[in-house]
Amino acid sequence: MIAAIRVFGYSLFAIFIGLLFMGIGRKIIARIQLRLGPPFYQAFLDVGKLFARKSITHNFVMDLGMIMSLAGLLSTMLFVPVAGHMAIKTSSNLILIIYLMAIGHLGMAMAAAASGNPNATIGVSRALTMMLGYEIPFFTVMLGLIIFNGTSSLELIAQSQAGGILNWNMVKFPLGFLAAEIALQAIMGEKPFDAMVAPAEIASGPMVELGGKYLGLAFLTHAVSIFVETGIMVNLFMGGASNVFTFVLKQFEIYLITILIEAVFPRFRIEQAVKFLWTVPMSIAVVQLAIILL
Amino acid sequence: MVEILLVPLITAFISDIFIKNKRLVWFLFLISNGYILYKLYSLYGKWDLTYILNTDYQIFGAKLSLGLSNNPLGWYFAFFSAVVTLVIAIFSIGFNTNSKGNVAPIWMLIIFANLGIFYAADWITFFMMWELMGWTSFFAITNGNTKALDGAKYYLALSLLGGSSMLIAILLLGAYTKTFIIITSAYRLIQLFNLAEGVFTTILLLFIMAFFIKSAIFPFYMWPSKVYAVGPEDYIAFMSSVMIKYGIYPMAIFIVPVIGNLQLPKIFNAGNWMQYFIGYLGALSAVVGTLLAMFQTDMKKLFAYSSVANMGYILLGFASMSIVGFEGSLFHVVNHIVLKAAIFLSLAAVVYRTGESEMHKLGGLVYKMPITFLTFLFGIIAAAGIPPLNGFGSKWMIIQALMEKKMVVLVISMVFASTGAFMYLFRALVSIFLGQLPERYKDVKEVPYTMSIPMIIMMGLMLLIGVVPGVVMKPLTIALDALGYKVDIATWTTLSSSFKNATIDLKIVFYMFAMGIVVAALMYLFGNKSETIPQHDNYTAGENPIEWGVDADKFNYSYSFYQPFKEMFDPLFERISIDRFFSSIGKNFEYISPTIQGLYKRGEGAVLLFSIGVLLFILGGWIL
Amino acid sequence: MEDLKANDKRSYIDNLIDFFRKRSIWMLHYCTGCGAVELPPSMTSRWDIERFGIVPMATPRQADVLLVTGYVSLKTLKRIIKIYEQMPEPKWVLAFGSCTVNGGIYWDSYNTITNLAEYIPVDITVSGCMPRPEAVIDALQTLMEMIQSGEGGAYKKYKENYEYYKKNQDRVLRKTAPILGSSETESIYQEKEGNYET
Amino acid sequence: MNSIVFLVVIPIIAAFLSLFLGKVNKLIAYIVTIFNLSFSIVVLVSGKIPFNVAIGGWRAPYGINFVVSDITIFFLLLINVAAVLSLTTIKEHMEYQFYAFYFILLAATNGMVLTGDIFNFYLFTELTTFAIGGLVAYKRDRLATGASLKYLILSSTASTFSLAAIGLIYKTLGTLNFADIASKISNLNKASLSLILILFISSMLVELKIFPFNIWVVKAYDASIPAVNLFLHGMVSTAGVYGAIRILLMVFSKNSIMLSQSSNIANILILLAFITVIISEIGALTEKNLIKVLAFSSMAQLGIFLFGISLGNYEALKGAFYIVISNYFAKFVMFIVAKNYSVIAGSRNYEDMKGLGRKYPGLAIAFTISALSLMGMPFFAGFWGKLSIVGNALLMDKIAIIGVIIILISSVIEGVYYLRISHTFFSDGNIQDTKLSRINCVLPIILAAVILIIGIYPNSIENIIWTMINEIQNTPEKYIQVILPLK
């Protein structure tokens, strides 16, 4: 029972942080564009509105897929140590996290495709292609860290960086961090790697038929994924944190970098994006890996 | 112990006689499979059972004796194959009620060969069963279907080639080690390495070629796509899940111990060249299989390439030459047996109802065949290696083992392949089951109970193995223990690798996923109520496609699903094609053939040729 | 709009929901006419309507408010109606300029409609030919106030008086049946039309 | 056992009588053939083997003699069984020429096996040629005449070589008796031996269907009636195989050392063998005429046989025997099935035979079993042959290993075209109802069962083969001593 409450609490916390980041991100982009921008809590308002709205579903697979998508990311989130805390104490294996994250994508893709709109399916096709693009460099960077630390546990990797900023993997392996940052841009689906959403081209891709609470669930999924992805980065490169507040702050630093890049870039075509990811960040990651191995 | 071989053989003969009575034949098939499973279950633990048949046949100066033995690894393969075969057998009863041909007798022969391979104690028995499987599966694939001939011919040629290469290897092994017993010959082969390295390498490579052909590893990866596309679907389910593992079993029992025990210099502190040889071929099959699977339009071809990729994973596990990788590979064997059978059963159900296997001509079947969809969904989740189902554990172990051995290229290609797997698996899901339902499939129904129950069983199996991997890992650890490998006895739900703090508890993963579902469902219920609208009511920029005479199923985006991505690879695949290479060999033979026939048709040339022959013969006799 | 005023008691939850709705208006700007040109300035840094939580959306499923930005030809009307019907409730319509009220300079065209409100319920009409961004923002803010006070319920009217709207729509849309396409499309369209009510 | 001469004499008398007997010929043919068969069985059972019969009381090496040893009786049985089986396929009325030639063929092939004299052997070979020439031309159309002529030209050229070789032997060794030659062969210098062997072998290779001396085969098979196909396969080839074993392994082998060490002829033979195999398999690959396919395949099988005996290893020789036996039974099955099916389909093109396997499954299954045996698949007789030959060839030098690879590749090709044919039989098709003679339906199944039994239980034949190999191994005691007991 306590475990269940903890899980629920962690979920709400992750959603809260994710939505907060989304709002702040929008504000920052607005400021970069010399606009006032929406208030920082805008994402909450949006989600609130969406859940209150009457929504439209085409069939039960859409409902199932949206639930699966949020559930997948929530359960992934439970494996990411937040400043050393976890909802249920278990080994936070990196490979497990990577694979678990896929279930969220699968659910989302299934819901999108079940709507029967070709734009959605095109978006899914692009998203999956992009996934193949970013997984390779990101995994290569992770591989270096795993081999260096002799463990695939995210928690142990975070712990091994304890004791000052100079011990952070970000400082020790700057090339790896750079590659991971570029890959992270694609993982989060921010510009220049947002070909799968591309509102002007394929009418926001997978989300084209989502409205009301389905879009709301998609927002929540996105919020949790921001939390998970920045959380992984913090644990991998910034030495985790001693308390939750520092952890969230570090997460925000990572998210800030992403947002700053997002604000100023146009969009890659999908195959350009994959080519870019397989050349630039991948070669940086390979150099980093070679340095670690030799 | 002999009875598990005799029963399928006798069943094959009996069902051959009653071939016209379909119901009886398939019922016999089911009974026989059930008996085999029961018998295998009772054989568990009796590892010293052997059966030897002495013959007067003399080879290399000694009388040949053929033997069977209940070896733990063979049991492991045989048992799980038998479980899945039984489920497929139940499915077949429903599936074959209207079909024209009847593969049951020949299938029974294949099961006989199957058990023979897993229970063979010596290479000659092994080879006999191996070759038996080759030609029987040719007949099972073609099954009187003229269109199936091309693919089956390709398979047969490769299969016979593999058989030949294995025959040479076995006989060389017998000549140099003076034994045909599999286990003994492995030990003696290792000793041979120091005496005659050339012979050793030849034997090993020939064996590997035979096994790779059967398991569709890299240079020989073409046959599944050709064969699966044409064979009877229920048999293909068996073939893609069980039969493709035949190459893996001898790899596990012979090649891996031999390579593992060699004292070879290591490259980059990671592994010796033989490990890399196996590993790179595995990685190539994983990557190439994945890429090709993405670009298929026929769903059976797609999953054929997926099988190729999965065989690649298994090989990668072997290449790590660590106990975790080895265990992971063998675990993946069972996982793949289960999940591929599930996927192909659901595909068989789709073909049964629609008669179509081109993905872009299907779509929206989920509304008509929910159980089939669910089986397929479970299958692809498992195949993508996503946690609560069974494909994850083994992939995880293989990746852990490779990372531990610092085989970075191999592990990156493994991740590439399993991420790419996500692409083609999802593509199949979308194209077959989701999207708009074509008008012509409005009356499609869910398959009858005889077919849906096996699918439900497969779903249960996937979930069971996924959450409680112990049901497979326990027998596996005991089998490995009996073979002399030191393994930790795993608990029912945990998997571990030798990394620091790298034990995952799949039970907890399952709980967490379940809780995730609960939280997400709460969120879902929290929202305002939703309304279901017709499937074709889509945002189309205000256009009404029906008004323009466009059917709803034209909305399905499923043809050239990954076109931009494919264009990246087009130059590569246009330039290099293993398929073209192998086909061209066959084509060249067929090209020469009429010339030679012409030689035998004409008269004047004959006399000329004859005299030249005599002349050369005489000259040769003097000069040589 | 007087009769649409909420006559029952509004609970806190309803107020909260209306607050959310008010502060997060997502618009679908259906660029039918010249008024579309005024939207980019209102969204970018000079006027920045995002500070009210107003953002453009790509599909009717996600949008709360439909902007009809100028004159509406018959062909366009058909699409507008379809999109309007595809939007989930609650939904609002903003009509731009005089063209949507009386046809504007196209008042005697054989091919444009003169009054949008005959075909779909319009919540707010923005004056001007064409309205400046200030006018657009003003209209949107009026809409926000209407939402908060529970007034903006024109979409309910559409449901209640569907026959009226349908009759008007059919009257003009008869002229727009496609020449291409299969011969049976007309009948199919007639049969399936009912399904498009949402 | 002087009456062994009857095996040759009675068919010759029958050949003469057949000119006058007309319709009774069929009966006489059965009687004579069954007599030959039962006589051979009686000889086998009598337990007096080995023995030597001097014709006319002239003792060897001066007179002509008939020898009955283990090998002889084995091949005698094969030939006479083949004769009986072939006769069963004749349903329609045959003219007297056919029977006359048949009796001569029977006499000649029996004589070839029995004789202990090289010149006599030559005579019987010529007689065979002459009989086959007549039988192939029996249909009297353009194709048959052409085929017959082609065969006659090739054989007569070959017999010229043969005669030259015999002359040389007589010149150098002063004797024509097999046993005598065998005991004196070590006196011969290498060059003369090589020359004699080359000349003699090149004549024998015509009968053995080895490239490039097999140009006649395909046409002859295609042009002749089914019974003649079976004669060619069952009697002539078997006699040729016997000749090759007797002459290469027993007569011209020095001190019972096997061929490959005694001369470089062996290397040429291996080369020819695998060229034959690959060429005939490739030739068969796209062939649509079923009879031609079988003709190509029988060339290939004899190529493998030659490969086996040229390796100079007793186990490989054993394999060669297995190949001969497997081929003997399998081709019988296949020719009979081909005959039946072509009658039903009205064409020899196997693509016209679709659906026959579903209508007459027994025949198609028998055909498949034979095909698998020829491919050397396990559980069939051919496997044991392939196992022995390949296994022992791998122990030899390079050329043998290349040969193994080529033979295995061609067995892949063989598999492809044979199983394609089997598949065609089992696929859907329209068939008219045709009545088949019962014996022609049952016979292939029985023979296929024999193949299966040998394949599953090699003990049944292993010992017989070893007795024969024993004889070859101990030629001086087992063969020469029988004929020339005084030495």
From TrEMBL, chain C:
Q: Which keywords does this Swiss-Prot/TrEMBL entry list? A: 4Fe-4S, Iron, Iron-sulfur, Metal-binding, NAD, Oxidoreductase, Quinone
Name one molecular function that GO assigns to this entry: 4 iron, 4 sulfur cluster binding
Q: Which Enzyme Commission numbers does its entry carry?
A: 1.6.5.3
List residues of the NADH:ubiquinone oxidoreductase-like 20kDa subunit domain: 31-142
Which InterPro entries does this entry report, sorted A to Z?
Answer: NADH_UbQ_OxRdtase-like_20kDa (IPR006137), NADH_UQ_OxRdtase_20Kd_su (IPR006138)
Q: Which GO terms describe its cellular component?
A: respiratory chain complex I
Q: Does the keyword NAD apply?
A: yes
The record's Gene Ontology biological-process terms are: aerobic respiration; electron transport coupled proton transport
As for family, the record states: Belongs to the complex I 20 kDa subunit family.
Matches recorded under PANTHER family: NADH DEHYDROGENASE (PTHR11995), NADH DEHYDROGENASE [UBIQUINONE] IRON-SULFUR PROTEIN 7, MITOCHONDRIAL (PTHR11995:SF14)
Name-wise, this protein is NADH-quinone oxidoreductase, B subunit
- Which species expresses this protein natively? Thermoanaerobacter thermohydrosulfuricus WC1
TrEMBL record, chain D:
Q: State where the protein is found.
A: Cell membrane; Membrane
Which GO MF terms does the UniProt record name?
lyase activity
Topology with respect to the bilayer? Multi-pass membrane protein
Q: What is its main location?
A: membrane
The terms describing its cellular component in GO are: plasma membrane
Is Nucleotide-binding among the key words of this record? no
Q: Which family does it belong to?
A: Belongs to the CPA3 antiporters (TC 2.A.63) subunit D family.
This protein is called Formate hydrogenlyase subunit 3/Multisubunit Na+/H+ antiporter, MnhD subunit
